[in-house]
Amino acid sequence: MSVFKKTRALLATCVLALSLALVACGGGTAPAGGGTATDGASDGAAFTTIEAGKILVGSDCDYPPFIYIENGQAAGFEYELAQAIGADLGYTVEYLPLQNFDTIIASVAAGSKMDIGFSSFTITDERKELVDFSIPYFDSNQACVVMKGSGYTSTTDLAGLTVGAQSGTTGESWANENIPGVTVKGYNQTSEALAALAAGDVEAIFFDEPVATEQVSTAYTDCEVIAVIPTGEQYGIAISKDNPGLTAAINASLQRLVDNGTYAQLFSKYFDFEPTIS
């Protein structure tokens, strides 16, 4: 039984997501404000945005239940949280066309294409050298997924074999650093890694536990999680180091959404355990 309350036809969703690579992920709330704004509720921190009245978001839109494409539009926990932040700050939140996950941090750092990266980014020291992060909004671990009946029962069984992960992720890093003699194939999307596992191109794949649990209980029921790796990761929103006012405004907004119950309401819509962020 999935730990998530919402189930959906994820295989069709992933196919649709890939077919929409040149289409914007979604829209947002009614705009207000301009390209430069002062958010009085966040200690008067001035911040700029690339387009007046908008916060432009980069995401791969392929990580259910956090972010995915449904009926041609972005959906999921992160999407709804982004919209809530935008409404709180008085800004439209607009998702850009689908991005490759491993290019988003660099794009945020450049500051010319997107204002924030909101795509289940684990906060790491390496990434913090390039961008700033919001306060954490989700706690996670890694998971190892294999085909049922494969005979693999732990990550130690994978030494010297070929496994998969989404390029640029902490799952890819963990496999490279912890499995002796492993070959790690990188994929643009987690759905591509899952398809490679089903096709027998790799023996296992590594990605975040909440998404792994969702996928094996819905779209990929012939797969199973054989290990949950307690990496103790936290997700944050990536923001340019040149825009500290936006970081301050988003942090203040996130805290208000926690304090007024909006965060917990959105969390309970997608997960059936208690939020760890308060």
Please write out the topology.
Layout: H1 10-19, E1 24-26, E2 36-39, E3 45-48, E4 54-58, E5 68-70, E6 73-75, H2 77-89, E7 92-97, H3 101-110, E8 116-122, H4 125-128, E9 131-133, E10 138-147, E11 162-166, H5 170-178, E12 183-187, H6 190-199, E13 205-208, H7 209-217, E14 223-240, H8 244-259, H9 262-270
Parallel strand pairs: 4-7, 4-8, 11-12, 11-13
Antiparallel strand pairs: 1-7, 2-3, 5-6, 8-14, 9-14, 10-13, 10-14
Helix pairs in contact: 2-8, 2-9
Structure description:
By secondary structure, this protein is an alpha/beta fold. The protein is globular, with a radius of gyration of 18 Å. The model is unreliable at 1-24 and 28-43 (pLDDT under 50). It has nine helices and 14 strands. Strands 1, 4, 7, 8, 9, 10, 11, 12, 13 and 14 form a ten-stranded mixed sheet that branches. Strand 11, helix 5 (170-178) and strand 12 (183-187) form a beta-alpha-beta unit. The chain has two domains: 10-138 and 235-270, Periplasmic binding protein-like II (D-Maltodextrin-Binding Protein, domain 2), CATH 3.40.190; 140-232, D-Maltodextrin-Binding Protein, domain 2, CATH 3.40.190.10.
Outline:
The protein has 278 residues and is α/β, with parallel strands linked by helices.
List the defining traits of the structure above:
278 residues, alpha/beta, 10-stranded mixed β-sheet, two-stranded antiparallel ribbon, 32% helix, disordered N terminus
